[in-house]
Each structure stands twice: as C-alpha cells, then as structure tokens.
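Milestone 3.1: sequence recovery, worked example.
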C-alpha cells in the first residue's frame, strides 16, 4: 500500500497536493488533507466499481428502456451516488488502509 503515489490520492482535490508531505511519515497521520484525499480516493474507487458492476448485471427491459438518455442520466446518478457514499462511509472502509499507509516502515 505504500507504493501509492500521493498525487493520485490528491486527484479528487488538487489544492491539497501542496499541503501533503512527500512521503508517509509520523506527521502524515496528523494531516487531515491527506486523510480526506485518501478517503475520497478509496471510497470513490470502491463504490464506483460496485455501482458499475451492479449496473452491468441488470438486464434491460424490453418495454421500459429509456435508450441513450437513460444511460447518460444513469451514469450521472451513479457519479452522484458514489460521491455521497464516499462522503458518508468511506472513512470506515479506508481507516485500516490509511493506518497502514501512514505507518512508519523500518
């Protein structure tokens, strides 16, 4: 988990990149910007993949299919759901991963 690039974690919020340390250290555990970026990255990746897999497993209805417009708005709905899910519960999911990421390796 230490091989993750901090720049990829900050992709969700590029303004926090300047505030982040360059390598995981003892003060990285105290950095709320890093924690927020980590939660967003893990949450959006996990929930985004989950919703994408869920949508692929559903079959289209023969009579109630909305066509291309439904596909576009479904993608927008999935994006909004992913953001909301990651805001509310990503910290529970990413907490142990964040602790391992910030743990000092000797």
């Amino acid at each position: 988990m230490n091989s993750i690039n901090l720049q990829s974690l900050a992709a969700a919020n590029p303004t926090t990149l300047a505030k982040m340390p360059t390598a995981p250290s003892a003060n990285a555990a105290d950095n709320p910007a890093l924690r927020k970026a980590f939660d967003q990255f893990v949450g959006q990746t996990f929930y985004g993949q989950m919703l994408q897999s869920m949508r692929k497993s559903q079959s289209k209805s023969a009579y109630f299919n909305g066509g291309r417009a439904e596909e576009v708005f479904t993608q927008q709905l999935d994006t909004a759901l992913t953001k909301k899910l990651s805001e509310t519960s990503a910290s529970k999911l990413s907490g142990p991963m964040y602790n391992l990421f910030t743990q000092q390796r000797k």
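The two ends are 15 Å apart (CA to CA). Confidence is low (pLDDT under 50) at residues 1-7.
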